[in-house]
Amino acid sequence: MQIRDLPYSDPGEPDVRSGFRLLLWLGRMQLGGQLKALGWGVLQLASFASFPVVAGLAVSAVVRRSGNDLALAGVAMAIVTLSVTVGDTMLHRVAVSNWITAAARVQQLLARRTAALGATLTRRVAAGEVVAVSTGDIERIGWCVEAVSRFSAALLTTLGVCVALVVYQPQLGLLACAGMLALALTVLPLLPRATRRADAQRDRAGRATELAADTVAGLRVLRGIGGEDLFLTRYRRASQQVRHAAVRTARMWSFIEALQVALPGLLLVAVVWYGARLALDGRIAVGELVMVYGAVSFLLLPLQLFGEFAMSYSFSRPSAARAARVLGLRRPGEDSGSAVPEEPDMRGPSQRWEPREVLFLSAGLPAGLYDPVTGLHAPAGSLTAVVCGDPDEAGRLAERLGGHPTSAAAETGGRSTNGPGGREKVPGTSADGTGRLNGHPGRSSGKNNDERADENQRAEQKQGSERKQLTEEGTQQPSASVLLNGVPLDSMPLEVARAAVLVQDKDPVLLSGTLAELLDVPSSGKVAADQALEAAQCGDVLGALVQSSPDAEGDPMRARITERGRSLSGGQRQRLALARSLITDPGVLVLDEPTSAVDSHTEARIARELAKLRAGRTTVIFSSSPLLLDRADRVVFVHEAKAAASGTHRELLHSDATYRAVVTRDPQSTTPEPADPRDQSAQTEGVESA
Amino acid sequence: MSHKDIPAAGEGRRSTLRARRAERFGVPEPDHDPSAPEDVTILPVGSPATVRSYVRELLRRHRRTFALLVVVNSVAVIASMVGPRLLGGLVDDLAAGERDLQLARITVLFALALLVQTVFTQQVRLRGAVLGEEMLADLREDFLVRSVGLPPGVLERAGTGDLLSRITTDIDRLADAMRKAVPQLAIGLVWAALLVAALCVTAPPLALAVVIALPVLVTGCRWYFRRAPHAYRAEAAGYAAVAAALAETVDAGRTVEAHRLGARRVALSERRVAEWTAWERRTLWLRTVLFPTVNLSNMLIMGGVLLLGGVFVLEGWIGVGQLTTGALLAQMLVEPVNLILRWYDELQIAHVSLARLVGVREIEPEAGTGTAPGGKDVRANEVRFGYHADVDVLHGVTLDVAPGSRVALVGPSGAGKSTLGRLLAGIYGPRRGEVTLGGAELSRLPAEEVRRHVALVNQEHHVFVGTLRDNLLLARQDADDAELWAALGAVGADGWAKALAEGLDSEIGSGGLTVTPAQAQQIALARLVLADPHTLVLDEATSLLDPRAARDLERSLGQVLEGRTVVAIAHRLHTAHDADVIAVVEDGRITELGSHEALVTANGPYAALWRSWHG
Question: Are strands B378-385 and B394-401 parallel, antiparallel or unpaired?
């Protein structure tokens, strides 16, 4: 495999049973490259090793005062030069190619797995792991896989040199070999430990960087309120701690380095002492003494390669384990296999499913979207607004409406405000029940090696159970699936369900890229981009994008949107996301609070245009804004997990006091129930500041 | 070669931007350059003069550590040359047929030299790390010192993204340069110079070999170093882009699934892999030229010493011993040469990052020459303002905010409400006209003075990494625990705060306990209570929260607003309803001004909107 042929058209099916097996699999997949690297490696090291021979020849020739021999040494020198140059360069090329192809393969596998996992990955435990694999682990895995061949080459050459030394000059050779062995046994065990220490120190440095980044991220707050000195002092302290830790690590390395000077040095002293005596006795020639001295110096090179390999292996073991774990993640109900979702076809699914729809319709089930749990019904072809007293419940209900819900809470349709158990959370005003995780799995700062090692072990033990958990959550059969035209959505293939119903959640993410790329989503093709942008009132967003993107030369479609649309305000982001959903033009569109951060003026216009654009299509909007509700064909008020009332906004406003209180937040209409905390808030609502 | 420089492919090596140049052979630069900045750099990048003066200052600060490094390094190198010298003498004696070699003396000398070399090598490594770490710590601390002194207007306009990427990415890139490149280069240069000097001392004619090899080395390296920095920078950026694409797919998991973007994300990842590996091929090609050049020059030196030296010995100009010593010294020269080449481009690459870091030094701190405010009334007078030289966002706005009153700014998106709010909070200075606080011009007051009177409250409720106490103390550093609890109580946050296991000492923010957005906003409000400014400008403070959380928070907010002047940028109409004065902002002008009743009676745009809202 050449680098130029990347990416792989098919990265293959990895062996994810364990980290070691993954490494093995990666090595097997590039067997040809490994063999080539082995060959060039042997050539390179053998050429290096023969330099002392040439030097010895030259010195011998000079001692013997033979010009011819010297010329011969010159020719030998030229040959050695050539083979060192070729061997070194080619080894480097093949080794780097092996590294790159292994890394690229894992990146591709990760991308495929991530795409297949989709919403399941919003669970942060898994998400953090994926990012950790892609940012740090892959380099180490590639390094280790690639180093195998160089290690083997070093091993072969070392053995060769030792054998040659022993054959050539038994006593000196044995002395050198014994010395090498002692050297390897002394230094090698230290390396992995030292590397781990360096790793821990990097984490600490990462912590300081994070502190700095955190301070900078909150800089506007600091400049607006104060406290710069407090945070500077704190950062200085962290920075100095990093410095001390780094110097401490460097001290350990400096001792290893000193050891690497002293031990081979001692070997050299011994060789010189012993060799000089042999030379004195006339048992070896002067040139040979120089040769042995050079050969022993040479042996330090493969020794470093051994060290590197030991290091790369100890580095990559936990990385490979994590990679195997991530690549082994499966969606609930997903069969194994690296399912790459096909580019979906808008017309396909509905056609394929039509016969069954008819079947169910004839059985007398309602057309449109129907949720048997709450009794919520969104008739086909109309705009239904849903008002939910509890925003968490609204989020879960919206997710259920799309079928194949990912969180357990959404499946059971229950009212528990906390996510799946075992997650620590600040108590109190739990505004969101989405089960926000606080554990930062990737972080292990400020911990020492042993703790880290323990963690790795625990993580490895956990891997099985975690995968199981992911599956369990999925296989818990939902109490009842939402029905689309009578067909249970959960029983449709995921792709088909997603194509039929688009649920835009409360926090839709804008993917970075140009505006054109953002809006290029699988769609019916019936709604043009400018139509959707206009309906979502994106005029000022386009202006802002053009201004911040000089490359676009005034064309908003070429303007760049930064990650998560951070350069835009909350309202602007919401409107772009809405435009994207409108372009998709799905049969059923579910929107959860699509305009909560948009000002009233603009919201009123969006409500009008949205109704116009979606005329004849099925649309469900979760909102409590009168401006949107007023435009809906029908409003359903969901109270305590049941569809409690329905009608037009105006009807409900007059007939239902609870509804009125939830929707208008109007100080004048909240007299009836003073015990309700919402009403107390009415007094201070004066400046909601939004 | 050491383990450090075998496949350097995985290491973060980056380089300067430079115009692409055509090459007739090998692997040309790929078309796509991932290191080309996609976001506009808003803050300045340091000029060469600024960078130079900063580097000089940095070296001056650490001249002692630097000198110490050079000294210990020299001792270590000189000690390492004793072995070859002794062997040379030995060879001389042996060749001359000497029987009494004084082997014991030589062995002891050799061992002594080894001891010195060992001790000093350890010191070199340590001193190098000390120097690198000191410089790195200085760099990052200097940068943060400068950053926290930036005028709020600059921050508001530039956003924190640019600064953030400087403190993370650029510091990261510099870390390797400072930690390794600077000390290693210093070590390599001293080392190589001493070896060449020793070669000259041993046998001056042998230095001829170095003279022969030098042109080859210099030519090859010049070729390489002209191209390498840019290529490595692009390569690293390309690799980062691969990870970034994946991270985004993970982050946007829900959206990706809902919109069925899976296949496209896979395709994007593969495109990123292709772009990255194209640069890997490019850098690999550059090294395919560099490696033979370096190998060739190394071999030229060694071979030259051996063969030329051999001829010289045959001619009787030098002895066999000198030849042996020279050959061994030449062999030792390989390592420092590799060291220099290995780290030189790292330094070139680091230069760009350094320029970005010191660029912040070029921003002028605020003048802060204004007189102290003589009252609490905020007044905008014929204010014109725009973010770009020729485009005004506000066209002559006049607004009086009486102390203790509540003003609501309403109007469509992009009309200039937020901009007006920021002018009233003293974050921007007007282009024309003036914004005054108690008669003093706000834009001329330093941030430290302004914030004693006015605060902007927006949706940015940053929770700092640290304890809850740290998060509150920043508003008033001398506050005691009782005051902190009182502030938390005032915003209704004492309930959950008391429930925390470690109370005020609980670690919150990223990495600690996760607080909900509503709790984060309560913390922000508690800070306001502590800072106690008399005027608040509220901009979308609760808009990103879901409605129920927003309701809870409005109660907290009510407590904070009590007794203060408030300018609220209202996006929900019921917010405006209660204000003393409502200003309708459209197209950068105030088109309607008055109380709710007055505006409804006037039957203008506000009245129309109110009716559709209220039903």
Answer: antiparallel
